[in-house]
Design a protein that fits this description.
Shape: rod-shaped
Order of helices and strands: HEEEEEE
Helix content: 25-40%
Number of helices: 1
Mean pLDDT: 79
Strand content: 15-25%
Distance between the termini: 54 Å
Strand order of the largest sheet: 1-2
Largest sheet: 2 strands, antiparallel
Number of domains: 2
């Protein structure tokens, strides 16, 4: 009886620990997939006059330009050091 307990208890403990680790990892992955909204700007009508807009975009080049969700989409920018909306933002690829 003692031999069975010595074998089964460590196996049971390892199984529970493994299940907990897998569950924690899945929670981290789903958290990472949530959209991150940032402030972007639409040129109105030029880079010196910008309208603020909240978008799910990134400054990291993904190969797809960030566009607004208006009926007629416009490119969304971020501001440069001179406070002009002229730096590219890119669409987040999920």
């Amino acid at each position: 009886m003692k031999t069975i307990a010595k074998v089964i208890l460590p196996v049971l403990a390892f199984t529970l620990a493994s299940a907990g680790a897998i569950g924690t990892n899945e929670a981290k992955v789903s958290e990472a997939k949530k959209p991150v909204l940032i402030t972007g700007f639409i040129q109105n009508p030029n880079p010196n006059n910008c309208l603020e807009i909240t978008v799910d975009c990134t400054p990291v080049n993904t190969g797809q330009i960030c566009m607004s969700s208006e009926a007629t989409p416009r490119q969304v920018w971020r501001k440069n050091i001179a406070n002009q909306c002229s730096l590219n933002l890119y669409k987040v690829v999920h």
